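Hi R.,

As promised on Friday, here is the backbone we talked about, encoded as structure tokens. Could you run it through your design pipeline when you get a chance and send me back a sequence?
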């Protein structure tokens, strides 16, 4: 989280100024996490927003509560 907020690594977060975590999923292993990330990247924006709103209707930041 700190790397994303401080924009230490060049990439999506730095390019678009994304600093709020509004959705996350926990998985059993890194392989499952990568597979899910690839799946979500192929989704339409509308589908992603609907998924976020199911678990976080106010789109509040989770990042304040994550260590």
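Update: got your reply. Pasting your designed sequence below so it's all in one thread:
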């Amino acid at each position: 989280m700190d790397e994303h907020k401080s924009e230490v690594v060049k990439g999506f977060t730095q390019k678009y100024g994304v600093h709020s975590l509004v959705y996350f999923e926990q998985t059993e292993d890194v392989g499952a996490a990568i597979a899910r990330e690839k799946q979500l990247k192929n989704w339409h924006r509308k589908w992603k927003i609907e998924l976020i709103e199911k678990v976080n209707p106010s789109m509040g930041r989770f990042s304040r509560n994550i260590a």
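One thing I noticed while checking it: The two ends are 8 Å apart (CA to CA).

Thanks again,
M.
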